Amino acid sequence: PRCFALVPAAGIGERSGAGIPKQYVEIAGRPMLAHTLAALTAVPRIEQVLVVLSPADDRFEQALPGHAGWVARVGGASRAESVLGGLAELRRRGALDEDWVLVHDAARCLLRPEWVDALIAACLPDAVGGLLAQPIADTLKAGDADGRVSATIDRRDKWAAQTPQMFRLGLVERALQAMGAAATDEASAVEALGLAPQLVRASMANFKVTWPEDFALAERLLAG
Ligand code: CTP
Ligand code: MG
């Protein structure tokens, strides 16, 4: 089977406060999305990278001039819908049920090819698939509406889920269709089918640029 990457990049980046979709904010001289795509295209095992844009996107061509990879304007109202649109597009372009798809957030622009290599090596022989993740180091607190601690949560078996998340096309499509727009990642949809995806350790640096202050942190990491 082949490996494809699918990059949902159809969000508006509301929490980032950037005023434009955050995937187009320049970090270390290039739009965030360009950094993300460079990491994925540097992985030889990945056949093609499909970028999923919003149908209303009017920035891609200017932000990534001469981009030679696959692009589809099939984004939806939620991340899950954008991914489902991208999976259907991969099928139209010849991908099969048994091919692997690595879904990776455009907003995780610090991705490194070696982490992707590790995920692929772990998942290719696996019956289910898996995801990059990081064991939680901090003590976890639940907070109430007043910003006060309501509980302490045992962190010992807790991981922060990242992307890429790697599953076979047929499985991840069935899982996301069953869960609907609510799924915030592919693994949770696969779990809902009773399967246990593999956790593959990556790095805290594989964080998702989400809040205004995250751009400066990403800039420091990418520039260094
Ligand atoms: N995404 C998408 N389609 C959507 C929503 C999100 O393709 N309808 C993508 C984003 O572009 C991003 C990834 O999914 O690369 C992770 O989502 P998130 O970090 O939440 O990005 P946004 O939804 O754009 O940000 P926010 O939630 O702050 O608006
Ligand atoms: Mg979002």
From TrEMBL:
Keyword presence, Nucleus: no
Class of enzymatic activity (EC top level): transferase
Protein's name according to its UniProt entry: 2-C-methyl-D-erythritol 4-phosphate cytidylyltransferase
InterPro entries: IspD, IspD/TarI, IspD/TarI_cytidylyltransf_bact, ISPD_synthase_CS, Nucleotide-diphossugar_trans
Organismal lineage: Bacteria, Pseudomonadati, Pseudomonadota, Betaproteobacteria, Burkholderiales
Organism per entry: Roseateles saccharophilus (Pseudomonas saccharophila)
Domain of life of the native organism: Bacteria
Residues marked Positions MEP for the nucleophilic attack (site): R155, K208
Keywords on record: Isoprene biosynthesis, Nucleotidyltransferase, Transferase
